[in-house]
Structure formats: C-alpha cells, structure tokens
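Annex B. Sample input.
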Amino acid sequence: MRNQSMSTEEFNNRFEEAVRIVDGPHPERAVQLLEDLMLEASEFYLADDQIVIQLRMYLGSALWRSDIYARAVPILEAALEDAIRALGWEDRVTFSCAGNLCRALSGIGRDKEAVRLATSTYEKRITVFGELDNGTLNSLGHLANLYFDAGNFNKAVELMSSLLEKRTEAFGEHDSRTRSSKYNLTVMRARRDNNEQDLLDLLVEYTNELGPEHPHTIGVWKHIAAMFERNGLLEEALVTWREVELKLTDAFGEVALPTLKAARRRLMVQQALGDNQVAQQLEVVGNTILRISGQDI
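Annex B, continued. Sample output.
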C-alpha cells in the first residue's frame, strides 16, 4: 500500500519511537516526529481511521506534557470526537484521548470541564474494564491530579490515597506505577499540610536512587522552591529556583518552556526581594513563554 516516501515498516518503527519519547523525560522531542507521521498518514488514511486518531492523541499528549496546552486542546478535542464516533466508548484509544484531553484542559484553566470529563471517563472505565485495570487506575490518577491542580488538596489526597492502595493491590508495592502514586501522594500531602520536611526527605530519596538530574528529582526541587515562596522565605526560594533553572537548562535547554517558567519564577522572587532591574528581563521571558505556548501567561 505504501509505495511513496516511507515504507510501512519504517512508518511503524517511527511511530513506536515517538510513543517511547512521549512517555519519556523529553516529550517535546516527539512533537515534530509525530507531526511528520501525521502528514505521511494523511495521504493514506481518513481522519477517523484509528491510526490517525492515535497519532493525534500522542501528539496532543506530547504537547501538554511539554506545557504547550493551548495547542494540545483542539487536537485532542478533535481526536476524541472522531474516536467516539468511529471506535466507540469501549475502545481504549477513546479513553486515552479523553484522559489526555482532561490534562490539556486543566492546563489552560478549564478545570470544571476537565474534572467533569475525567470523572465520566473513570466511571466508564470501571464499567468496561474493571476497577483494577491499569487504564482505569490511570484515570483515577488523572482525576486526583486535576483536583490538585484546581487547589482542592483534600480531594486530591483522598483520591491519590485510594490509587496507591489499588495499585499496591494490583501490581505490588515495588512496581513503578505504585511508586509513582506514592511520590504523588507525598507531594500532595506536603502541599496540603505545608510540610517541608516530607519534601526534603523525598528529595534525598530520589537524589540517592535516581540521581540529581532525573526529572522526578528536579520535580521535587520545584515543589520545595514553591513552598519556600508561598511561606515568604524568599531568599531560600531564590536559591532553590536558581538551582531548578540550572538543572532544567542542562536537561532541556535554555529556551525550553520548563526552563523559561522556572526562570520567570526566579525573576519574580528577585523582584519581590526589591531587585527592580529584572523587570525588563521578566517581560522578555514572559513574552517568550507566550509565543512558544500560544496561551495566556
């Protein structure tokens, strides 16, 4: 069937590579690859063919995971609409489109829509696949994170505690999915209870086990910096945001969104400490974020 540009085997190999990248620490590297694959697929498939829906779903996922939420939303909305019509709600691809759309919607501030869709998706998954199915549990995790992002920390902790129990039962306490739930629960409780020590203990654990440059370790640094900032410990916050910015620069580059957002937080703390010389730099960084992400800052 594929006698132009790319063979079926090459197409499939690149698709598998893109999926691995999306699920890894640098999802932004999958965006161009997936866009190229979508262009290739458009010559041979209709928009509602499963392969095209999957490509759009992974592209949307790569975008929101790279903090480019505004671009992800319309892609995932269209993918979900086509998936419901062509595949039905009992297909895992449809559920994956819904789950990714929830996270993208939350990223642009449409929290109520995100929670509503995530709740419906979770309930549908239980009916179709059962309570301890991996996809069902992923949906529960999405819901917990959405409540956390919306500021409902008690509900987030409640759901994440349930997820940790269910994943322990389904996969065992040492499984990576279970440990991810434990990490998220620690972060959520620390935020709810304003408990700095839990985050510091988690930082030591992740630094020793995963290394100081691992994305999970950097994520803990970000939570610590934010907690210092909320508690008015601006000198400590400034030092920590500088550390985060440096690590993200090494991991993603100086003009990547995660790095720029850390730089903005660092500059805002500097300004709060009385450094009026950073105002112009703060404006430049903010405009760069807006230009890359295509959403309000």
